[in-house]
Amino acid sequence: MERLLRTYVALVYAFMYLPVAVVALFSFNSSEMLAFPMTGFTLGWYDVAIHDSRLLGGFLNALTIAAPTAAIATTLGAMAALALTRRRFRGWTLFAALLIVPFFIPKIILAVADVIAMAALGVPHGVPAIIAAQSLIILPFSAMVIASVLIRLDRRLEEAAADLGASGWQVFTRVQLPLMRNGLIASFFIAFVLSTSEYLVTSFVSGRTQPLAIMIASDFRFRLSPKLDALATLIVSANVLLVAASELVRRRAKGAVG
Amino acid sequence: MDGGRTFLAATVGPVLVALIVLCLAPLGVLLVVSFFRVDFVSIVPDPSLHNYAQVLSSGSYRYLIAKALMSGATIAAITAVIAYPVAFFIAKRIREVKAALLTALLIPLYTGDLVRIFAWRLILGREGVLNSFLIWTGAIDRPIETLLFSPTATTIVLVYNYLPFMVLGLWLSFETLDDHLFEAAADLGAGRTTILLRLVLPLTAPGLVAGALMVFALVVGDFITPQLIGGASGVTVISAIADLFGAAFDWPLGSAIAWTLLVAMVGVVAAVVVILGRTPWGSAAFGRG
């Protein structure tokens, strides 16, 4: 029974990693054809992917968008997480429900709502619009990550500081902020990753700006090649590194308890 | 406490403003436009229920909305069955590497929609990995044509995309489940089936509902997967909305479909909550009874 369970769980994990493995495998295959049998080992596709100036431009665009988006989502997420974990106020449930609305609404509906509202108000498409739209989508994730750290913090530290005469602002800057720092870092990394991989809403409000995700989408439809495998493998590796780093940082925050 | 008010103004305030400006207001504008109509290439602010009448009387839109809701429910059910043992295993059989296992489950999520779909096309395509592999090993003579661009392919990839959310929801419930309950039930003579049906299922119902809600909403909203994996079967209500905002310029009708879909989604969720809430099994899920 136990062995059956173990095997089953291993199979589910294999299923989850199968696509990632296949993409990585073909990125090293020397043939232009994406099919078995494999023909030989090469790093050539990585060379091609890295030296593609169009993709490099898209990559830089993605970074220009991801940095402010991650900062905004993390700041708002921290505010929401602080309110939800530190106070039981009137309208708490409503606030929590509103916070997950952007997660539950189909992204295309958010996208077309943005397009209509922007047209009505004359807001131009482009980088600021992408940042605003992505910040909203990522906000529920940031709030969750930071709340998961705040829940574990020892509230007595904050109470002790208040008892010793610290003002609300002092409690925040001297006690809460240092203790939740790791949660903020984790949220920033995860928001960064989510921003660079977001495609749907971005494509509706991007105007003429082309971040990497949109370029990959069009290459994927019209110019399929192992170069995309190499690119995807690079993206996945970078994401795994960022997420793993943020997870390490977040778990270290647990040490603050007790 | 006076500081309480300042604290709330400083924390809840900006978040509420962001939610209202970036989410609720655009949805409000979408609702208003859904009552307008299109004349040639301009939107005429002449409020009527015309678009909603068109959505509700059109067999194809009704079908597409029903298909989206059904697909959400089906994928939620499939992921629940697959995820249940996984969540149990992570919560109850793992101590040291629990966080690592959960993170490992989430990492494929961070690869982005397109990379994942791209990978599945490599696997399921006519000259794809699965077919080439099967031919190479001699298991089949000619490629299986129907792997990609079929409803089955869409189902596989949707399950793949949203399984981690279901595992997360269920895992939270299993994590709070007290092991002593099992021992007590077993001591009192309950068999494996009784423990599963009368103890484990009701107590993990909150996680099941949370996971199912997430998967349902995400599947209904997913249109890249059916479009790029499902082929001819990939027309969804979501792609219909996208078309009306793209080539077929009719924002008001598109808005009306979007709002009908939102109301239908809320309706399904509310119905599930009400029906489940009446059974003893489900009342555990909503903290009543």
Automatic annotation (TrEMBL), chain A:
Keywords in alphabetical order: Cell membrane, Membrane, Transmembrane, Transmembrane helix, Transport
Signal peptide span: none
A single BP term in Gene Ontology: transmembrane transport
Domain ABC transmembrane type-1: 59-246
The keyword Transmembrane is annotated on this UniProt entry: yes
Family classification: Belongs to the binding-protein-dependent transport system permease family. CysTW subfamily.
Protein name, as recorded: Putative spermidine/putrescine transport system permease protein/spermidine/putrescine transport system permease protein
Source organism: Roseiarcus fermentans
UniProtKB/TrEMBL annotation, chain B:
Keyword presence, Transmembrane: yes
One biological process term in Gene Ontology: transmembrane transport
Membrane-spanning intervals of the chain: 7-36, 64-87, 99-123, 153-174, 195-221, 227-249, 256-276
Record keywords, A-Z: Cell membrane, Membrane, Transmembrane, Transmembrane helix, Transport
InterPro entries named among the record's database cross-references: MetI-like, MetI-like_sf
Pfam families: BPD_transp_1 (PF00528)
UniProt topology in membrane: Multi-pass membrane protein
ABC transmembrane type-1 domain: residues covered: 65-274
Predominant subcellular localization, coarse grouping: membrane
Subcellular location(s) per record: Cell membrane
Highest taxon above the source species: Bacteria
Cellular component GO terms, alphabetical: plasma membrane
Family in the record: Belongs to the binding-protein-dependent transport system permease family. CysTW subfamily.
Name this polypeptide is given: Spermidine/putrescine transport system permease protein
